[in-house]
């Protein structure tokens, strides 16, 4: 089944404790992206990647890191999480310009 | 400033009614997508339109891309409670995608 898989689905962590949210797609898509979704603010892009080893900042990159060492994987790293990074996170992939397939989301709470 | 504006922001209707939601921009997009999102889940792609003036139908849903490729509409005929959700439009802008803020639709039984 074609899909984008994110893990974990839910995560509660403490301020400052490094964490990684994994994202993997099995559709051989070049384009991958991370978004956060907050009430009243909609989907905001954090980082995106056009292909392996090519990443670029989105609208809200502060406090996040990404890497794209393989085409299928695009992990999101929070080196020192803070409470304002509490949010619902989505990974997505796309073949060129024809629309995203989204993962099921990761609900992160930083206390 | 939002590149994509959506209207209305909220819409509540009775089952069986028709409705249209809009996605507008002052920018030209090479393609535009519509998604539906249910609470706590990822958005699901409904359609991609790429040609100005294009009309696509998906059962009771009709999507139109404006002639100038700056706007789009989604029309739902005889809405059902299962149509309830957040409808998002997104456009290709350069090498990236941009999303509108969404229209939250409630279809009441």
Category by helix and strand content of chain A? mainly beta
Taking the alpha carbons of the first and last residues of chain B, their distance comes to: 36 Å
Q: Give a quick account of the main beta sheet of chain B: strands, pairing sense, barrel closure.
A: 6 strands, mixed
Task: State Rg of chain B.
Answer: 13 Å
Overall form of chain B: globular
Distance from first to last alpha carbon of chain A: 36 Å
**SSE-based structural type of chain B:** mainly beta
Please trace the helix and strand order of chain B, writing H or E for each element.
EEEEEEEEEEE
Uncertain stretches of 5 or more adjacent residues of chain A: none
Largest interface, C-beta closer than 8 angstroms, per-chain residues: A-B, 23 and 21 residues
By DSSP (H or I, 4+ residues per run), the number of helices of chain B equals: 0
Major sheet details of chain A: 7 strands, mixed
**If you average the pLDDT of chain A, what whole number results?**
94
Order of helices and strands of chain A: EEEEEEEEEEE
Overview of the structural elements:
The complex is a heterodimer of chains A (111) and B (109). With 111 residues, chain A is mainly β. Chain A contains no helices and eleven strands. In chain A, strands 2, 4, 5, 6, 9, 10 and 11 form a seven-stranded mixed beta sheet that branches. A four-stranded antiparallel beta sheet of chain A has the order 1-3-8-7, with no helix packed on it. Chain A is globular. The termini of chain A are far apart. The model of chain A has no long low-confidence stretch (mean pLDDT 94). In chain B, 0% of the residues lie in helices and 55% in strands. Chain B has no helices and eleven strands. In chain B, strands 2, 4, 5, 9, 10 and 11 form a six-stranded mixed beta sheet that branches. A five-stranded antiparallel beta sheet of chain B has the order 1-3-8-7-6, with no helix packed on it. Chain B is globular. Chain B starts with a strand and ends with a strand. The chains are: A mainly beta (111), B mainly beta (109). Chains A and B meet through strand 5, strand 9 and strand 10 of A and strand 5, strand 9 and strand 10 of B.
